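sry for the spam today, last one i promise. struct tokens for design, 255 residues
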């Protein structure tokens, strides 16, 4: 985990640079998406080793970690509210996050000379449970309206956070909640900053519709899948050809 500027969405380099760090260090993910490969990879943050005390670097690290801790509290609160809204005990989802792989990202989208030819982030759905995003006043985040497939801007609101429901909650809730498709457009004049915190469950969690929510009248809409394998496959497929569809939860849909 650290700085890089080579994120791709479907083999197109995103017009952005990022700094990523794990909120739980170390975290664990499968080494590969192959089901027969049970090797686990250890991920660690790459903070500078010994920054001088009271340096700007030290301050940035502290501010980032404090912010992440607070947003994590909010994330768990939201998971509790989602559980209650589904008629479940408030702590129903907590066990899935014991060895979570939650990550915070600092996004910088520089001005782009040809914004019509590039995207800050190509269209995608977030694979995890929830994403909590702080964005500045520039704008650029868009969600795809299901009704007519029009891209609708998510207007920046001062002092407000954007909450994205991810694929995992769509499956757990058996589609009571839906993961929204979104993207980020860039512009030629103003740089943009955003800070998403991605809530990812433990890599070994088998994601499937919660048993309490399914019955004869509402049968499970998804087959179980391993979160870590799904996540790694999703990241890998971002480097495949444009025509190749990313792995999606629809691949596990029971029709
Ligand atoms: O920059 C944003 O507003 C959101 C970025 C995003 O969707 C992502 O990194 O998954
Ligand atoms: Fe996203």
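last one done:
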């Amino acid at each position: 985990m650290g700085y890089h500027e080579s994120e791709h969405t479907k083999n197109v380099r995103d017009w952005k640079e990022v700094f990523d760090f794990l909120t739980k260090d170390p975290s664990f993910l499968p080494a590969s998406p192959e089901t027969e490969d049970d090797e686990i990879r250890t991920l660690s943050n790459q903070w500078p080793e010994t920054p001088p005390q009271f340096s700007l670097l030290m301050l940035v690290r502290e501010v980032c970690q404090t912010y992440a801790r607070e947003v994590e509290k909010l994330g768990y609160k939201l998971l509790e509210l989602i559980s209650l809204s589904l008629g479940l005990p408030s702590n129903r989802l907590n066990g899935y996050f014991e060895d979570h792989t939650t990550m915070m990202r600092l996004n910088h989208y520089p001005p782009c000379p040809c914004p019509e030819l590039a995207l800050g982030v190509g269209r995608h759905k977030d694979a995890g449970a929830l994403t909590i995003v702080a964005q500045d006043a520039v704008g650029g985040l868009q969600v795809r309206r299901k009704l007519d497939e029009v891209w609708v801007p998510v207007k920046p609101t001062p002092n407000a956070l954007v909450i994205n429901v991810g694929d995992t909650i769509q499956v757990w809730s058996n589609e009571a909640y839906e993961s929204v498709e979104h993207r980020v457009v860039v512009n030629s004049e103003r740089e943009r900053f955003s800070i998403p915190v991605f809530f990812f469950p433990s890599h070994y969690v088998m994601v499937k519709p919660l048993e309490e929510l399914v019955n004869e009248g509402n049968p499970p809409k998804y087959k179980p899948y391993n979160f870590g394998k799904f996540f790694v496959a999703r990241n890998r497929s971002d480097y495949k050809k444009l025509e190749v569809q990313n792995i999606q939860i629809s691949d596990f849909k029971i029709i």
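The longest helix spans residues 56-85. ok im logging off now
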